[in-house]
Design brief:
The chain is built from eleven helices and eight strands. The protein has 273 residues and is an alpha/beta fold. The protein has a single domain, classed as UDP-N-acetylmuramoyl-L-alanine:D-glutamate ligase (3-Layer(aba) Sandwich). It is globular.
């Protein structure tokens, strides 16, 4: 009898999100990113590797006009400049006027006196997805003081149910989805929730991977009208790319390089299958 080669079973997480990944690659959505200056490089390179296209400007004079050309918008408060403070509200207003989905990434809010009230104000503009870590989501609803910069949790750790409750409150305010990054990622909206236990610790050792996730989420909302499924697709996409990159990397530096390659690779075999 001829020996048979074992066929690897399809990854159920990947199978769920593969259509969204394929739609991003087919549609090449243009994502306007008002993002942290320290992460612009990995955000731009990551979007291009995933098949989307980035553009970045934040001034009041240009950002609202530029966003009229975009398919989606992401607002990240990571290194908030005076230009961005002035430019963000009219840029969001332009996206809403034209029916473009937008993603809020309230990076490092908590005790910061400018970005924290701005993030809470922007919830009223109903982002399709709010993407943050546990500390940031708690701070959005006034249930915490935030973490230390971009850390994934407040000192001492956050209670999982408190974070989920805060995320549900944010979703109720926006009518959209909330994506909470952590050791186990949580995505929910008013009626659905899912926890994604994938990825690698190396994702937290490279600057800007959270910002990249926000931009990748925006790219997914551009091709998927269901904000919850778009957010799940972005989380799984980055987590699986992180796993592939971690297998090939020798440390954080080589991980960053391999992550870009993996973003291009994830899901292509699944579409063929």
């Amino acid at each position: 009898m001829t020996a048979r080669h074992a066929v690897a079973a399809p990854d159920p997480d990947l199978a769920r999100v593969a259509p969204v990944l394929a739609a991003v690659r087919a549609g090449e959505p243009l994502v306007h990113c008002l993002t942290a200056t320290v992460s612009m490089g990995i955000v731009a390179d990551g979007l291009l590797a995933a098949g989307a296209r980035p553009m970045m400007t934040e001034t009041r004079a240009e950002a609202p006009v530029v966003t009229t050309m975009a398919d989606a918008l992401t607002i990240n408060l990571g290194t908030l400049s005076t230009d961005a403070v002035d430019g963000i509200p009219p840029t969001v207003a332009a996206a809403l006027r034209d029916g473009r989905p937008w993603v809020l990434d309230p990076t490092a809010i908590g005790i910061a006196p400018v970005r924290t009230p701005l993030a809470r104000q922007l919830l009223g503009s109903r982002p399709a997805v709010v993407r943050g870590n546990a500390s940031e989501v708690l701070a959005l609803v006034g249930a915490g003081r935030g973490g230390r910069g971009p850390d994934s949790s407040a000192p001492g750790g956050d209670d999982g149910e408190a974070v989920a409750s805060a995320a549900r409150e944010v979703a109720a305010r926006t009518g959209g989805a909330v994506s909470v990054s952590g050791e186990v990622d949580l995505v929910l909206d008013a009626v659905r929730s899912i926890r994604v236990a994938r990825g690698t610790a190396l994702l937290s050792r490279v600057t800007g991977t959270g910002c990249l996730l926000g931009a990748l989420t925006a790219a997914c909302t551009a091709v998927c009208a269901d904000a919850f499924e778009a957010a799940v697709a972005a989380v799984v996409w980055l987590d699986l790319a992180g796993e592939l990159a971690a297998d090939r990397a020798t440390g954080p530096g080589s991980f960053r390089m391999h992550l870009l390659d993996a973003l291009d690779e994830v899901g292509r075999d699944e579409v063929g299958r």
